[in-house]
C-alpha cells in the first residue's frame, strides 16, 4: 500500500479526498444517540477543510439530513446510511436500489420494538428511515442484554430480508443492497478525481472503509487510515490504521494542523 505520510497531507490537500466518520470520530460517544454533537468549532473547521481539499465527506451510518443538521458546512458532502443517502442541493437523494426495501425496513422497525429482549432491556430503537438501530447505551446492564438483543436483531433481520451491522453497543438492521462505507469512500474519491485519500473512523463499520483505502492505494493512489482511539476501539481497526489519534479531540487537532498547512 502507498501510505500517505501525515506530514504530507496538507501539501497534497487539493488532490486529496478527506472522508470522516461522525460518532466517536468528530463527535464524542454519548448515551443518548440523539444528543450526539460534534466538538465545538467542528462545522467551521470542516468548512475550512472543504476549501482546501479536493473533497471533504462525512461518511456515516446516520441519515444524511441528520448529519447536515449537526455539522453544516459549505462544500462538505454528507453521505448517510453508509452511502444509501446523500444530501444534494438541500434534498436527500436515495439510492434507487434501496427504495423497494423501505416497506421491509418499516416492518422490521415495528417487529424489533416489540421483541421481548428489547422491551425487557429498555433498549432504544432508532428509526433511520431506511435502516433501524437498536442501542444499549441507555441500559443499566448492557453486558447482560447484549446477547439477547443481538439475537433479536438477527432474528428480525432474517425475517425481513435485511442484514445486521454490529457496532459499539448497537446493532443496525439495513438493506442488503451493496452499499457500505467502502463503497462511499470509493465514490467520493472517483467523483473528486482525487490522487490521495484519507479516512478517519473509530468503529467496526469503518473497517470496510479502511480496506477500501488499502485497495485504492494498491491501484496507485496515496492513502492514510486514521483510527480514532477510545476504550472501546475494536483491535482490528487499530491494527489496520496507519495513524492513531486519541479521541475526537485528537482528530480535531490533526485536522486543525492540516487546515493550517502543517503536518
Provide a descriptive summary of the structure in words:
- This protein has 263 residues and is α/β, with parallel strands linked by helices.
- The chain contains 9 helices and 12 strands.
- The chain has helices at 42-50, 64-70, 102-113, 116-121, 142-159, 181-192, 207-218, 235-240, 247-259, and strands at 16-20, 55-59, 77-80, 85-88, 91-94, 124-127, 132-135, 163-167, 170-174, 196-201, 222-229, 243-246.
- The strands form 2 sheets. Strands 5-4-3-2-1-10-11-12 form an 8-stranded mixed beta sheet, sandwiched between helices. Strands 6-7-9-8 form a 4-stranded antiparallel beta sheet, covered by helices on one side.
- Helix 7 links the parallel strand 10 (196-201) and strand 11 (222-229).
- The longest helix has 18 residues, at 142-159.
Give me the secondary-structure topology.
Blueprint: E1 16-20, H1 42-50, E2 55-59, H2 64-70, E3 77-80, E4 85-88, E5 91-94, H3 102-113, H4 116-121, E6 124-127, E7 132-135, H5 142-159, E8 163-167, E9 170-174, H6 181-192, E10 196-201, H7 207-218, E11 222-229, H8 235-240, E12 243-246, H9 247-259
Parallel strand pairs: 1-2, 1-10, 2-3, 10-11, 11-12
Antiparallel strand pairs: 3-4, 4-5, 6-7, 7-9, 8-9
Amino acid at each position: 500500500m502507498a501510505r500517505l505520510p501525515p506530514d504530507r497531507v496538507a501539501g497534497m490537500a487539493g488532490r486529496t479526498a478527506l472522508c470522516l466518520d461522525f460518532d466517536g470520530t468528530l463527535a464524542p460517544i454519548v448515551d443518548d444517540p440523539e444528543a450526539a454533537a460534534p466538538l465545538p468549532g467542528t462545522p467551521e473547521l470542516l468548512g475550512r477543510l472543504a476549501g482546501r481539499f479536493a473533497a471533504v465527506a462525512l461518511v456515516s451510518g446516520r441519515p444524511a439530513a441528520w448529519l447536515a443538521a449537526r455539522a453544516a458546512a459549505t462544500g462538505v458532502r454528507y453521505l448517510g446510511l453508509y452511502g444509501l443517502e446523500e444530501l444534494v442541493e438541500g434534498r436527500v437523494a436515495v439510492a434507487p436500489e434501496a427504495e423497494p426495501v423501505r416497506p421491509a425496513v418499516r416492518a422490521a422497525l415495528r417487529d424489533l420494538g416489540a421483541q421481548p429482549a428489547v422491551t425487557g432491556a429498555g433498549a432504544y430503537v432508532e428509526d433511520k428511515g431506511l435502516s433501524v438501530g437498536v442501542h444499549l447505551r441507555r441500559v443499566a446492564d448492557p453486558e447482560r442484554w447484549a446477547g439477547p438483543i443481538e439475537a433479536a436483531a438477527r432474528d428480525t433481520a432474517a425475517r425481513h430480508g435485511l442484514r445486521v451491522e454490529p457496532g459499539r453497543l448497537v446493532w443496525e438492521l439495513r438493506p442488503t443492497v451493496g452499499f457500505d462505507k467502502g463503497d462511499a469512500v470509493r465514490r467520493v474519491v472517483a467523483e473528486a478525481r482525487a490522487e490521495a485519500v484519507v479516512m478517519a473512523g473509530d468503529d467496526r463499520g469503518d473497517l470496510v472503509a479502511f480496506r477500501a483505502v488499502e485497495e485504492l492505494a494498491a491501484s496507485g493512489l496515496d492513502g492514510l487510515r486514521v483510527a480514532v482511539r477510545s476504550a472501546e476501539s475494536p483491535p482490528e481497526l487499530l491494527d489496520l490504521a496507519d495513524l492513531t489519534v486519541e479521541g475526537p479531540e485528537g482528530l480535531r487537532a490533526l485536522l486543525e494542523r492540516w487546515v493550517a498547512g502543517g503536518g
